[in-house]
Every structure is written in C-alpha cells, then in structure tokens.
Amino acid sequence: NVQAISSSGLKLGNDDFSGFMFFADDGTVGIGTATPSQKLEVSSGSTQIVANFNASNSSTSSNNGGAIVEIQNTNSTNGNQGSIVFRDSNGNGSSAIFGYNADHSDGEGFLTFGTRNSSGTFGEKMRITSAGLVAIGTTSPTQKLDVNGGLNSPHAIFSGQASRGLLIETQNTTNNDDTVVLNAQTSTGAIILETNSTSALTIDSSQNATFAGNVNLADSKVLSVGTSLDLQIFHEAHNSFISNNIGDLTIRNLNDDKDIIFQTDDGSGGTENYIQIDGSEGRTTINKPLRINDSV
Known about the structure:
Elements: E1 2-5, E2 9-13, E3 20-24, E4 29-31, E5 40-42, E6 80-87, E7 93-103, E8 108-116, E9 122-128, E10 134-136, E11 145-147, E12 154-158, E13 166-172, E14 178-183, E15 191-195, E16 198-203, E17 209-211, E18 221-225, E19 231-235, E20 240-244, E21 259-265, E22 271-278, E23 283-286
Parallel strand pairs: 4-5, 10-11
Antiparallel strand pairs: 1-2, 2-3, 3-4, 6-7, 7-8, 8-9, 9-10, 12-13, 13-14, 15-16, 16-17, 18-19, 19-20, 21-22, 22-23
C-alpha cells in the first residue's frame, strides 16, 4: 500500500501498515518510523534484531574477506572519523568505537574505544594505534601493550576468581617515584618466576624467597642483611669481605659431629684445611705453622 501524508511524506507498507517505509519531505527515510531524524532511521520497536546485513562470500583473504560492512567519511581532512555510537533511551552516547583517518593520502588510521562514566563524562578508554600498539589509560603507547592506571592505583589484574591472581599496581613514594607492586593477593598465594617453563624464583605468602639456581652479584656489589645493613658480603675484582656492623659476629655449625673448617690454597692450585674446629672432640686443629706477629 502507498499512503501520502500531507505536509509530511510518502508511506509504503503492507495492508495494515504494521510494517512500512516512510519517505519524508525533507529527504530522510524511516523504516518502522514515520519521524526519521537522520538520512536513514530504522526502528524495530520491541523486536530485538534491528537489522541484518548478509552476504554469501567464500573469500578468506586476510583483513578483507567475507561479508563486509563499510563506513566511509568522504571528507579528506586528516584526523576525521567514522564512528559507531551506542546510545541509551535518552539519546545519550553511552559508548562508541571511533575509526580515525589519520592520513587520507595513504589510508593510515587508528581505533579508539570510549565510554561514559556514572558522572556523565564521556572519554576515551582504549586505543589501537596504526602501528598495532594497544593503549589503556594513555593515548601515546610505546609498547605492544601500554597500561597507565594512574598514581597509587592498580594497573592490571590477571585472575580466574575474585580477589585472586596477580595484581599489578604502582605506589607513589615520598620522592614521587612510582614503585611497581606485584601482589598475589591471597593469604596462601605465591609469586613464581619461571624460565624455560621451570621455576627460578618462588616468593611465598610469608615473604620467603627460594631460588632454584645460583644467585650471582656483579663485582663491587654488596649483599646486605638487616634493615640497617647490619651484615654485608662484598666482592671487588680480586678480594672478598664479610663485614658485621652491629653486635657480635658468630659462625655456627649446628649439625652434630660436624666441624667448622677454614681452607685456603696450598700453593699448588689446590686447597687445604688450615684450621679445623671439632665440636664433638672439643678441640681445634691447626694444620700449618702458626706465626704470631711482634707485640702480640
């Protein structure tokens, strides 16, 4: 059926016009609505699927195969967009995908994803650059994934359950330097660093650290124990030092019937026992001549 609506437009539909297309006098077209506000406005009422676009295409070409829906901005201004906006019942844009035409001369582009928060502010939340870098919380990523959660806030959580898994965050110090925190979150959780699918370092929930391999320090670096650097082990290019900066320095062997042995080179490329302290025998054995300096 065709129905002309005075000072409005032309209506095409079925017998009772329960389904119709409306051509307004201002050049807009409505499907399912007689008051289109855009060049084409489709309203499905309470029906869930508004529109279906389909094609039978066997192409498996990478990035350009199968059924394609295109949005083109024919204006040649660099940096303009083609967008998909999701609106609520009041017409507010609640979220959107923006395709930016960075350079019309070579087709360079990038994607941004935006949402509106509960305060009504709409803003970009994620970006994929023309180089394939993904940004969350920043618009200028420098790595394949660049996440900026802000100062003193979590940046990422990798978890299979609530309040579990790995939490990555930064904490702002008094010097305004961000400290990176890796948190296993649960009271029994551990952080395990692996190489070649094998555990290299395990830090358990009691803050005990277990290394599966050797721990090497570069020359002139200090291994310190205690909150005030109480005990230090230091090695420079040729010499090694053990320094105790507070209290007594005690060397113990708590294994029954075992000794404390001091060795050094024998002058021929090997090593030899020089002093042996035998607790079970209650004696100290000096295996080399003992020289006492003058005035001692």
